[in-house]
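Hello K.,

You asked for the raw outputs rather than the summary table, so here they are, unedited. I folded two proteins back to back in the same session to keep the settings identical. This is the first:
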Amino acid sequence: MSETTYDIAVVGAGCAGYQLLYQLAQQPAWSSWRVLLLSDGIPLQRSWCFWATDNHPLQHLVTKSWTDIEFQSPDFGQTQAVAPYSYHYIAGDTFFRYFEDVFLLQNSNIQVVTTNVCSLTNTSGQFAITTTAGVFRASQVYSSRHETPPNPGYWNLSQHFRGWFIRTDRPVFQEQVATLMDFRVPQQDAVQFAYVLPFSPTQALVELTAFSSATAYAPARYDAMLTSYLAQRYPGVAVTVEATEQGQIPMTDHSFTRFGRAGELLLGTAAGMVKPTTGYAFRRIGRDCAQLAHAFSTGNPAHWPTTTGRFRFYDRLLLGILTEQPEMGVDIFTHLYRHTSFTNILRFLDEDSSLFDEARLISRLPYTPFLTQLIRQWKH
C-alpha cells in the first residue's frame, strides 16, 4: 500500500470538484501545490443550466444561451425577455471533455487516481484518505461525496427528470426562447412540468420534470408523458430521439454543514449548494468554489454562502406546500409568472432581491396555502 502526501486532495471529479480545481488554478501559488484528484471513474451524463447578468468563469463552455423565457399553464402563457439576464446551458460532454482533455493536461501538478474512497480520517491536522488504490495524505481535503444525513430535513422532496435530445422533421422551435415551465401535462400525484431548451429550429432538449416525495419514475413513465406532450404541443411533427439524460436532485430544508465528519470541506450538493426550491446549483457551486480557493490561498477561513435567513424561510414555506398540497403547485407558479416580471423572478430566485421586491412578489401569490403552511410550521 503506497502513501503520498499532497497539499490538496479533491474527492470527486464532477461539477463541484472540477470547478474548485479551476478556481484553485487561478491562485498565485497554484503551480507550487501538489494536488490529488480522486475519481470513482463513473461517467456522469447530465447537463447544467444557470442564468446570469455577467460572464461565468467557465463561459467558454456554454453551449447555448437564451434571451427570452417562456411560461405556460392551462390558463396562462407568456414569453418575456429577461435582460439583463441570459439563460445558459452547458452540455455535460463539453464540460467533462474540457477538464479531462485540456485542463488536466495543462496542469501537471494534479495527479488523478481512479479509485473508491473507503474512509477519511484526520490526525493532528493531516488527512489520511484510505482508498482501494492505497492511502493518500493531504493537508487539506475538499469532498463532494454526498451522504444521506442521519437527521434529514423536515421537508424532503426530490426533483427528478428525464430528458430527450430530439430532432424534428421541420422547424418548430424559437431559438431565442427557453421554456422553463410548461404545466400543460398531467399533474397526477406530483408537481409536473415540461422544460424545453431549443438549440436550433429543429433541435431541442425536452424534459419532463417532477417535484415529488416519491423516488424517480421508471423511464417508461417519463417517456409516455414526453411522447404525449410533444404530440400535443407540436402536432403532426415527426420526432427523432437522439440521446437521453436522467437525474435526481434533492429538495430539502436539511441544515447542511460546511465540514464533513473528518473536518474536510464539503462541496456542491454535499454542502447544500442546491437551491432547495428550484434544484439549480451550477452558479452557486461556482461562487462557493471561488471563495474556497481564495480562502486556501490566503489562509483565511472559508465562509458558507448557502441559503440562510429569510430565503431559507421562503424555501421552507414552498417546500411544505409542495409536499402537503402538490395540487397547489400549478396555481402558485401561475400566479407568480402572471403577476411578476420574469426578470424579477430570476432575481428573487438568485436571492438578490430586496425586501420590498419580495413583499410585492409574495402579495401576488394565493395567500391561503402560504398562511396555512405558516401556521403549521410555527406550531412545529
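The second followed immediately with the same parameters:
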Amino acid sequence: MDKNLIQRVGSGLIYGLLTFLCTTEYGAILINKISPDLVKPHQLFYGLITFFLVVGAYEGVRIMKFQGNLYQWLVLPLVALVYYKFTTRFFGFGFYYTFDLSEILALSLILIAAITLFKFPQELYQDEGKLIFIVIYTVLPFGFALGLPKYFLNDNAFTWEVFLLFVLIWSSDSFAYFTGRMFGKHKMAPKISPKKTWEGFAGGVFFTLILGYFIEQKFPDLRGNWIVVGLLVSIFAPLGDLVESQLKRTFGVKDSGNIIPGHGGVLDRLDSFIIAAPVVYLYFILENIF
C-alpha cells in the first residue's frame, strides 16, 4: 500500500477519534475512569474547539502573508477578545443562546466576508482587511459551534449535535467525491476547485439527506430536524470548501498547514465546518423560535 495513503488514513482515523471523544461524553468517561471527576464533557468540547480556533487563526496569518508586523501581532489578542465573549456565554449560560441583534450582525459578517473574498479580493490585500477577515472567518464560526449541543449540568448529559454534524460533513464530502468520480461531467467552479462537479454535488445532497433521516430516527433528543440539517450541510459544506480554496488561491498557497499529515492544516480539514456550523446554529435558533 502507498505510504502516503497509509499516512493519510492513519492521521484521518486519529483526527476522527479525537473529534468523537471531545464532542461526545465518551472522552470524559474514558479520562474519568483513570482519574475520577477530572473533566466534564463540555470542557473537552470547549478545549477541542479552542484548539481548532487557535491553530486556524495561526494558519490564517500564514496564508494571508501580512506585510507588516503590527497587524499580524494584533490577530491573536483580537481573536482572544472576541472568543472570550463566546466563552463567557458558554460557561455562564449553558448552550442555549438567544437570537438577538449581536448574533444577527455576527452571522451577517460571515456572509459579508465570504462575498468580499469572492467579489472584492483586493480589499484583503491590505493588512487591516486581513486582520478583520481572519477574526470573522475563524472566531465567529467556532464561537457559534459552542452553541450547537445541549449540556445538562446536573447529570453531565451531553448531546451529539457537533459530532453528528461532522459525520454529515464527512458524508457530504465523501459521497460528492465518489459520485463526481463516477458521473461528474459538469464543473461547479472550475477556476476555484476544478474537481468539483454538479453531479458530485447532487450525490452529496442525496446521500446526506438519507443519513440525516437515519440520524433523526436514531437520535430523537437532538435539537432540530436532522433531515433539514442534512440538507443544510449538503448545500453549505461544499460552499465552505470553495471559500477556503478561494482564500488559498487568492494568496497563492497550496495548504493552510501540515498539522494533520496527509490532510493539510486545520483550515483544510474544517473548511466545510466553518461555514456549515453557523448555518446550522442559525437553524437551531430559528427552529426554537418558531
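The radius of gyration is 19 Å.

Happy to rerun anything if the numbers look odd on your end.

Regards,
P.
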